[in-house]
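thought: user wants a sequence for this fold. calling inverse folding tool.
action: design(structure=
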């Protein structure tokens, strides 16, 4: 584990505020406090990643998941608990469950169009919030001046 450079407490508080704002946006986008749980965050964002995979990583892009595959996307709960969470999301219409045409004994699950839209709203909001959070402005690394630590005029450090 890398040891980060220390930041002042004011910067730490700013970051906590940023995380809390992002967390609150998740609740607003999801529309129900029932889904204000990191396990749903894990499930929905990992599903989104697999459904929108264009990086050529192993497994490739999928259209739908076997219901049993979804349990692996919730690594911090037991399979029994994951089953309950997934069923709640299906019952609420966020996940769509269908028979698997290749194996009538199993089910396929995918995100509803509404859930996909909500996740993408959340991701866009989060990206915009983190991009506007000036990363280097509150910290001067050893051997640098404050001017070197600040982002260039007109944007974040990655815009240079």
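)
observation: tool returned 160 residues.
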């Amino acid at each position: 584990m890398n040891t980060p450079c220390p930041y002042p407490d004011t910067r730490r508080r700013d970051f906590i505020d940023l995380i809390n704002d992002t967390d609150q946006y998740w609740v607003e986008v999801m529309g129900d406090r029932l889904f204000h749980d990191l396990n749903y965050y894990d499930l929905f964002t990992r599903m989104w990643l697999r459904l929108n995979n264009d990086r050529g990583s192993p497994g490739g892009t999928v259209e739908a998941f076997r219901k049993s595959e979804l349990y692996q996307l919730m690594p911090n709960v037991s399979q029994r608990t994951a089953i309950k969470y997934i069923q709640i999301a299906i019952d609420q219409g966020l996940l769509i469950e269908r028979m698997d045409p290749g194996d009538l004994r199993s089910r396929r699950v995918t995100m509803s169009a509404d859930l996909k839209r909500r996740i993408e709203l959340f991701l866009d909001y989060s990206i915009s919030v983190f991009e506007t959070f000036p990363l280097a402005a509150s910290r001067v690394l050893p051997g640098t001046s404050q001017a070197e630590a600040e982002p260039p005029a007109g944007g974040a450090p990655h815009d240079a």
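thought: summarizing for user.
answer: Here is the designed sequence. Strands lie at 65-66, 95-100, 103-111.
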